[in-house]
Sequence to fold (387 residues):
Amino acid sequence: MPWLALVGIVLFLVGAIWGLGFAPADSKQGNSYRIIFLHVPASFLAMAGYYVMAICGAVGLIWRMKISFMMMKSAAPIGAVLTFISLVTGSIWGKPTWGTWWEWDARITFMLILFFLYLGVWALQTSYQDRDAADKTSAILALVGTVNIPIIYKSVDWWYSLHQPATLKLTGPSSIDASMAYPLIVMIVAFYVLYTWMLLDRTRIEILERERKSRWVQAIFGQ
Amino acid sequence: MHPLRKQRLFTVLFIVIASSTVIALMLYAARESINLFYPPSKIVDGEAPVGRNIKAGGCVVPGSVVRSDKSLQIDFDITDGRATISVVYEGILPDLFAEGEAAVVDGKLDADFKLHATRVLAKHDENYTPAEVSENLQASEESAGYKGQGAEHVKTCESVSYDS
Fold:
């Protein structure tokens, strides 16, 4: 799937150059707002990726499909990295904007829990000798954690929080100027494409690793 | 669907629903502590403890900010539209602190509901506008008759809603 990577990288470069170089500065925050071009797409994918992981886990548990578990395992590190990017960029933005690196705000705290859920699934995968037990336990953890996603999403509406409410809205007009929204949307699409590419690529590696004793894998590597 | 798979499907659904219910109940029980701050109306109602460290959040009332000439002391009022409390703070404010913008302050209440702040955070709203667009917006609103402090207050603080 090199074309998928190519599309993703081109979109990423277009979005990044457009957003960082050409989009106008914000009237209140100046240039520091530009971190949303990383922060927002990374947060979107961190949450969407969790559903990918949990649904793969559910399919694996119900239909006992091996490939589904392999995809679930591959989604965990990617999601952890995206959540980490979201937390770090948010923190870097928070210092000049809010005046603090970290606040035990609902949105931020539940995002940190999401990070630990990803790490938990990842750790469970590697802590069992038995493949089957590892897959089942980590799928159950992934399923239990799904409740966190709507909580993160609605946290700014349910509680008084420091984090601002959603800017891009599914219903109603977004509260971001079009000149800033377009590069942001390009970046979000770029992150989706790159996520898909990374997930498929990691899953392929995982298949090869788990099936390394099978004849077709050995035929590929000429043994 | 194969009965065995159906059974597994129900097990999966049970795991998701049961864990969601447990966590929803926990969050419901802890809802007051998950709130980062008290809005001024709750402080005036006496819900916030006096003499202990609390956080209060609201819109900085335009025209209420008074800076001292001799020290870094600053006095201002915050409101949630229903009640207003005054805040006194000594120190450096974040760049985005401004009249008509939301802020979260950390400090102790005294008996007259005056908050002695040890830290002030600026709460950014969800609006992103380039400088030229925001100037045009202000100009058009002023020409349409939205003038004076009251209108300015309503306009800038309308995004701060505390209605739970």
